[in-house]
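Tokens in:
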């Protein structure tokens, strides 16, 4: 009796589960059949591996339909993907020429879905050309992100393979060897020493010019000449107006001071010209030596120190 009751319960459970499963299938089928959709189609020039019928179709990330059928296009080149789109999204899809259908990965599962998004730039010109008439409204396609990365990596690889890495390596090795030999050449040290000697000679010449012109003060002489000129002008004005006998002595004294100031100016000017003449003579001598023996600047010994006529070092 207990065994028959147990069998009855199992039978009731199986029948109830079967009825529920059949009802679910009928309900899902009916709901899909009752959906209001419009059919669109897109064509891809790349592999659609991972995209299956029933995969999601999203409009800017929002679920908007599903893939109805995947097949080879009539030209036997492109892949045809037929999509059923909910009618409430149809108005947004029609008339927008910037919309492009693109394959995207769904997580890390390897499955793909179709993303319909507004694009710009080069993506607007990536849709393949069709040599046949589609049966449904067409949404142009664009390359998937994975395909774009793959193409970029392929371009980089091709450019790297075009480089003559062996020749570049050989040239770099030869250049380094030449630089090493050049740095080890003894003439480089001689050249550097000659440049150092020439620099020291130039510094000595500059110091000699500074020494010869030390103590020469042009400004006081100019000021004396200016005062002498002013006093002479006042003297001539006094003579034009006429002077008294007692003022004649003072006038002669002023004239004597003017003469002394002019003499001081001339002496200072002659001393300055003499010093400049000696400086020019020293520079001319140095120039003649360099002109007759230019190798002294690069490969010869440093020029010996010269002495001027007044015994000062040059």
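Residues out:
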């Amino acid at each position: 009796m207990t065994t028959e009751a147990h069998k009855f319960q199992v039978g009731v459970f199986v029948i109830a589960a079967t009825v529920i499963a059949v009802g679910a299938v009928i309900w899902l089928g009916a709901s899909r059949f009752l959906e209001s959709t419009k059919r669109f189609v897109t064509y891809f020039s790349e592999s659609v591996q991972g995209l299956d019928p029933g995969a999601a179709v999203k409009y800017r990330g929002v679920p908007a339909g599903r893939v109805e059928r995947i097949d080879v296009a009539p030209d036997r080149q492109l892949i045809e993907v037929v999509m059923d789109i909910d009618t409430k999204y149809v108005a947004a899809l029609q008339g927008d020429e910037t919309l492009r259908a693109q394959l995207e990965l769904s997580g890390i599962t390897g499955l793909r879905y179709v993303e319909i998004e507004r694009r710009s730039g080069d993506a607007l010109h990536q849709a393949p050309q069709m040599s046949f008439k589609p049966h449904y409204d067409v949404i142009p396609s664009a390359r998937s992100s994975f395909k774009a990365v793959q193409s970029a990596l392929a371009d980089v690889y091709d450019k790297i393979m075009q480089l003559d890495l062996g020749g570049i390596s050989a040239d770099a090795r030869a250049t380094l060897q030449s630089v090493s030999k050049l740095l080890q050449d003894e003439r480089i040290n001689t050249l550097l020493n000659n440049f150092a000697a020439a620099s020291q000679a130039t510094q000595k010449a500059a110091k000699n010019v500074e020494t010869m012109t030390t103590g020469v003060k042009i400004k006081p002489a100019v000021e004396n000449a200016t005062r002498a000129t002013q006093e002479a002008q006042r003297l001539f004005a006094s003579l034009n107006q006429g002077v008294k006998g007692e003022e004649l002595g003072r006038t002669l004294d002023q004239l004597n001071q003017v003469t002394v100031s002019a003499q001081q100016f001339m002496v200072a000017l002659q001393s300055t010209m003499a010093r400049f003449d000696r400086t020019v003579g020293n520079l001319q001598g140095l120039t003649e030596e360099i002109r007759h023996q230019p190798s002294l600047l690069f490969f010869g010994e440093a020029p010996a120190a010269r002495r001027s006529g007044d015994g000062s070092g040059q």
